[in-house]
Design a protein that fits this description.
The chain has 312 residues and is α/β, with parallel strands linked by helices. It has 12 helices and 12 strands. Bound molecules: calcium ion. Residues 10, 12, 15, 40, 126-127, 243 line the site of calcium ion.
Length: 312
């Protein structure tokens, strides 16, 4: 049976690929809705980009909701320097014609978790955790109803990409992340430690372009755009595909390996704000709260991604 999920997202080229991978995989994943949050770019763009991606997938029926436009307690930091001015720079895609839902994303999350049988809905945050934490704060009764949270965020060995100590999604709203990591919900975390091993190298991008479809060209152009920035920044062979690790995990968890450990979020230090303090070596007796992924079979990941994108 397909797993029911809500994708919480701030597209973002890699968010777009994660959404496409989910929508291409109905045997494993049923997308109940997409909730947009402010992150890589401001909310008016992330909700619009979410709809652009659904239309690219020929899925105007997917419900897209706009959520929080700023972190719980802080000013929004965005990442146009990575994703471009629109957040989806690279391909030229038409403005969406499908509607944005009237309901607030936070209320959709609450309503869905209350309506679906307990323990059957997985949350998939691909951006700052503001919508999720706000829903938990507003409706504490839904916390125990969540099956699992599979999220992209954090880093341990790769440390930080927005500050020397912090990964972007966690840094933008550390209070929200803290609330989620303390929720007692089973967590699967895709930190930079794994996403930096899943690189969109030139041959992999060309294999996707060679699908010679609307989606194949768009994804190749998105990863082209991403690659220019990341290759320069990290000196790597290609740009990391962060967010698709989340949806790939739902389809083929055996691609990934990690440790069940304690992970806590720094919320007060100015120097290390948003750091994911991961007890990888188990040097404390703090209780494990997350499956913290450290590696992936990157060949298997790109085989899966290319095969699924070829379905469009
Ligand atoms: Ca994202």
């Amino acid at each position: 049976m397909a797993r029911k999920i809500i994708i919480d997202t701030d597209p973002g080229q890699d968010d777009a690929v994660a959404i496409l991978l989910a929508l291409a995989s109905p045997e494993e994943i049923e997308v109940l809705g997409i909730t947009a949050v402010a992150g890589n770019v401001p909310l008016p763009l992330t909700q619009k980009n979410s709809r652009i991606v659904c239309e690219l997938a020929d899925r105007p029926d997917v419900k897209v909701f706009a959520g929080c436009d700023a972190p719980m307690k802080r000013k929004l930091h965005t990442a146009e320097h990575v994703h471009g001015k629109t957040g989806l720079n690279g391909p030229v895609l038409p403005d969406p014609t499908m509607p944005l839902q009237d309901q607030h994303a936070v209320d959709f999350i609450i309503e869905t978790l209350r309506a679906e049988p307990e323990g059957t809905v997985t949350l998939c945050p691909l951006g700052p955790l503001t919508n999720i934490a706000t829903a938990f704060e507003k409706a504490p009764d839904i916390v125990s109803r969540v099956q699992e949270i599979v999220l992209m965020g954090g880093a341990y060995f790769e440390v930080g990409n927005i500050t020397p100590a912090a990964e972007f999604n966690i840094y933008v709203d550390p209070e929200a992340a803290d609330l989620v990591f303390k929720s007692d919900i089973p967590l699967v975390v895709m930190p930079l430690d794994v996403t930096h091993k899943v690189l969109a190298t030139r041959p992999r991008i060309e294999a996707i372009r060679a699908l010679d479809t609307k989606v194949g060209h768009a994804v190749a152009e998105m990863t082209d755009f991403f690659e220019r920035f990341d290759v320069e920044k990290y000196g790597s062979l290609g740009g990391p595909l962060h967010d698709p690790c989340v949806t790939a995990y739902l389809i083929r968890p055996e691609i990934f390996e990690g440790r069940h450990i304690n992970v806590e979020i720094e919320t007060s230090s100015e120097l290390t704000l948003g750091m994911t303090v991961a007890d990888w070596w188990r040097v404390t007796d703090r209780a494990p709260n997350a499956l913290f992924i450290g590696s992936a079979d990157d060949e298997a990941f790109f085989d899966l991604l290319t095969e699924r994108l070829g379905r469009f």
